[in-house]
Design a protein that fits this description.
By secondary structure, the chain is of the alpha+beta class. The chain has 16 helices and eleven strands. The strands form four sheets. It has a five-stranded mixed sheet with strand order 7-6-5-8-9, with helices on both faces. Strands 1-4 form a two-stranded antiparallel ribbon. It has a two-stranded antiparallel ribbon with strand order 2-3. A hairpin with a 5-residue loop joins strand 6 and strand 7. Helix 2 crosses helix 15, helix 5 packs parallel to helix 6 and helix 7 runs antiparallel to helix 10. The longest helix is centred in the first third of the chain and has 28 residues. The protein is elongated.
């Protein structure tokens, strides 16, 4: 007997009904399944010439693995992995295995979701609140993002961090380096630890993360440990120029371990230090004069602008003038390098922009998080940001620097050789 029952499912108060998202997830599931099938068929096609003794195919399909849910940017998407069997292997060593590049064997989340977690933490979301924060986007309870999963993910980050810290640098050369220390006080121990960061520019103009470790403030000893570790892993050629703020610890360690590297003080830091020594009513006008110095088209013009600054403010604001003039040589060092690179060398902004979210992190989050976990999350954030770092301007400039070319006001100086007497 057929009985018709009219049962209508009621939407729960905390449930978000979004037909468009449901359609997208359904389409994503079909596309993912098709892509996995096509990948498996391509692998089988490449192996079709492998035969058993009786003429049958050695590599064949072997059903599907149990369905599992992959956490994506549009929520969980169920998928089943194709299994392929090698029927002719005599032992495990000889066995041919199929590994999907689209769907790794143990994957539970897309890489984009993994990259999102450190950003959430640095924006003030506690690890215990990740599920709640992402429920509207990824679905109710956001599976595969529980605190225990975050702990396992942190362990994976730790392995990646240790491997990165041991990488070989013997074949690397960095023409410029930017150094800075970033403090993380929120959700860490009472003593403020400092993230020491070193970014380098390769001869091809690419910016790379060179050094990253936790130190006790920006002391000379902490920077020395970082530089010693970099040299121990094979970095032999000293950079031509280092850019950083006025933290004496870095410059002292740099002179001890890389004595041939020139100093360039960050104009953003120096401007802030100078303006802090004058009343707010004076700061706007003084900032405009400072801008004329570091944007001057030549060293001579910059020195003239400094003289004007001294003449304007020395009588009443001697401390601000002294703050500028005592580091004049280090502030104008960028004029000895190609003019195309001046925008990059005036400031340590390559590091500042990455750590903007770190510096503004507050204590809104609940619960304590270890210093090691915070370090790993910041490390992952920097690695993700490194993929988008802007290349140096100018073509074919860095190879000239390596060859020892000289620059005056950003223009290469060609030294003519005296002609021999006839």
């Amino acid at each position: 007997m057929n009985e018709t029952i009219n049962i209508f499912r009621l939407r729960q108060p905390d449930e978000i009904e979004d037909p468009l998202t449901n359609v997208l997830r359904s389409g994503a599931r079909k596309l993912l399944a098709q892509a996995i099938e096509m990948e498996a068929e391509a692998f089988l096609g490449a192996m079709k010439d492998l035969k058993l003794a009786d003429g049958r195919d050695r590599i064949v399909r072997h059903g599907h693995a149990p369905e599992r849910s992959i956490q994506t940017g549009i929520g969980p998407v169920p998928v089943s992995r194709v299994k392929i069997r090698d029927r002719g292997a005599d032992c495990e060593v000889d066995r041919i295995r199929f590994s999907s590049s689209i769907l790794p064997k143990w994957a539970r989340r897309t890489r984009s979701v993994d990259a999102l977690l450190p950003v959430l933490y640095l924006r003030g979301v506690s690890t215990g609140d990740f599920q709640e924060a992402l429920s509207a986007l990824l679905g109710k309870d956001a599976p595969n993002l529980s605190p225990s999963v975050i702990s396992r993910l942190t362990a994976e980050w730790g392995i990646e961090y240790d491997r990165w810290q041991k990488r070989d640098l013997s074949a690397r050369h960095y023409v410029y380096v930017w150094a800075d220390g970033v403090y993380l006080q929120a959700r860490m121990e009472d003593q403020a630890e400092c993230m020491l960061v070193l970014i380098g520019a390769t001869p091809e103009g690419k910016k790379k993360l060179v050094g990253f470790q936790t130190g006790i403030r920006e002391s000379a000893q902490s920077w020395r440990e970082l530089l010693v570790d970099i040299k121990r892993r094979g970095l032999k050629i000293a950079p031509d120029l280092a850019v950083g703020d006025g933290a004496l610890g870095f410059w002292k360690a740099l002179d001890e371990l890389l004595p041939g590297t020139k100093h360039q003080r960050c104009w953003v830091h120096k401007t802030a230090n100078i303006l802090n020594k004058v009343p707010k009513s004076v700061q706007a006008g003084m900032k405009a004069v400072l801008r004329e110095i570091y944007l001057a088209p030549s060293r001579a013009s910059a020195e003239t602008a400094i003289a004007v600054f001294v003449e304007k403010y020395d009588a009443k604001y001697a401390k601000a003038v002294d703050c500028l003039t005592k580091d004049q040589n280090a502030l104008l060092a960028f004029y000895d390098f190609p003019a195309e690179h001046w925008d990059h060398l005036r400031t340590s902004n390559p590091i500042k922009s990455v750590f903007a979210t770190v510096r503004h992190r507050t204590v809104r989050t609940r619960g304590a998080l270890s210093s090691k976990t915070a370090t790993l999350m910041v490390f992952k954030l920097v690695i993700a940001a490194a993929r988008t770092w802007r290349r140096l301007k100018g073509q074919n400039q860095l190879p000239k620097l390596i060859a020892g070319a000289k620059f005056q006001d950003g223009i290469e100086v060609i030294e003519s050789k005296p002609q021999s007497a006839a």
